Amino acid sequence: MNASETPERIVVVGASLAGLRAAEALRDEGFTGELTLIGDEPHAPYDRPPLSKAVLSGWLTTDHTELPRVRDIAARWLLGTSATGLDLRARRVELADGRQVAYDRLLIATGTRARPWPQQQGGTLHGVHVLRTRDDADRLRTALAAGPGRVLVIGAGFTGGEVASVCRDLGLEVTVVHRGDAPLASALGGVVGRAATGWYRDAGVDLRLGTTVRALEGDARGRLRRALLSDGTVVEAEVALVAAGAMANTGWLAGFGLAADAHGVACDHTCRALADDGTPRADVFVAGDVARWPHPLYPGQLLRLDHWDNAVAQARTAAHNMTRPPHDHRAHRPLPAFWSNQFGVNLKCLGLPSLADQVVVTQGSLDEHRFVAAYGHRGRLIAAVAADSPRVLDGYASLIEAGAPFPPELNATDGPDRLLPLDAGFAHRPAPVPDRPTVPSIPPAPSLRSVPAGHE
Amino acid sequence: MTTDSPPEELRLVVDLNRCQSYGQCVYAAPTVFRFHGEEVLEYDYAPDPGIRREVERAAAACPVQAITLGRATEPAPLTTESAQ
């Protein structure tokens, strides 16, 4: 068949949130052919956000994180086996166990994995953890429940903060080592980051800013005992969580003709994967954390969003486009939205704060846990972060989408008398957003914006 | 579906971008939903099927309709293949 015909066989590689929601959406779109889901984990699709929170605290076990099936999908499930290769010409996915699965349309939704600690610096020691999967969470929960004398968290991004927060709830001593000047600063900037510093300190976390871990050291039995830090100090700890970001699961695509690298799989605004010459494939689509695409709100770059909301929305758009002729394709252009819960504070974010040059507190106060910070770029409102203010963001959403002036005139009853915009405090000032149409080219590594915007 | 099967398993998920922490679900099904801190909602994705009615009430009561209910598995048997 060619790309304009109705597909008879659709294969989805990746059986997590994006893969499951895409499969359901394909059936909603009227696809009646053979549907195959391939997942490298042995588990039915589950939700990752609780792994770093309610699971670690012991309130939920990981079998209580399974996602609901919202419709029958009559799929063939190939779980516990990973995809290892792709033949674009023959339209076949190769699996680790030697099987080959043929497709008319392919959806790549293989997501990301946690960046591991280097083996030669102690990464293989017993007690060194990452947190991405159900099995990771089970291992880390077991380690925390054993009551270690101190937990070391490497990285004060969203995951690092959530885990440190749970550790304090459990009464465990925690040291957090963070390269930057403030927690969350790469995603939310230095101003909100300084507020987050207060949350860490108030919770009794030993927070080491502007510091890195040189090496992890173990005892004769290969168990973690201590970390050597860049400032020359030593932290004794039996458990370490490496929360140093995520890497796209694209290794299985290397050398098979798609524009895929460690930053993700490039696709166009309709979720069609780009071949390595930059042209979109009519039969291969991408969705979720692994996808990088040109978002019309953020021209001149390819975005990759590690967001729950984006995985669901992009899966639906991809499913629609996989079953329709090109003239009926939709563009994927969501307003980014994500959230995190840490130190008892609910954080909700809209837009991409990391692109801002200025920030202003529009409601509440940074000294309290309850505030809203609005982010501007070149005099336009581009993002908002709400701390313990979950009901206020709807109003900001329409202003952000409209490109309203910054600082925004809100006249909120809990706003300051006068808006005082500050430098947003990003370590690397964002590159100017060019005023030109987006070209579907593949930016060289390092990616201009693999947006460090958190995971939920 | 076999006739001797226990009450059908249910699963749920809350869209926590949409959730505005009104807490109606916590009142309707306090063993399934809870607040941790003032505005932080936590919930059980796989509650006891015996309290399905409470969970359905919680979903219906959500002012922003952030709760999605579904099944644990589809009725059609999964054809998970161990080998070809």
UniProtKB/TrEMBL annotation, chain A:
Start and end residues of each stretch annotated as Disordered: 409-456
Cofactor names: FAD
Pro residues bias spans: 431-446
Keywords (A to Z) from UniProt: FAD, Flavoprotein, Oxidoreductase
Reductase C-terminal domain boundaries: 338-410
GO molecular function, a single term: oxidoreductase activity, acting on NAD(P)H
Domain of life of the native organism: Bacteria
Transmembrane segments: none
GO cellular component, one term: cytoplasm
Keyword Methyltransferase among record annotations: no
Record domain FAD/NAD(P)-binding: where: 9-315
Stored PANTHER family: APOPTOSIS-INDUCING FACTOR 1 (PTHR43557), RIESKE DOMAIN-CONTAINING PROTEIN-RELATED (PTHR43557:SF2)
Protein name as it appears in the record: FAD-dependent oxidoreductase
Native source organism of the sequence: Streptomyces sioyaensis
Organism placement in taxonomy: Bacteria, Bacillati, Actinomycetota, Actinomycetes, Kitasatosporales
TrEMBL record, chain B:
Highest taxon listed in the record's lineage: Bacteria
One Pfam family matching this protein: Fer4_15
Protein name in UniProt: Ferredoxin
Organism name: Streptomyces sioyaensis
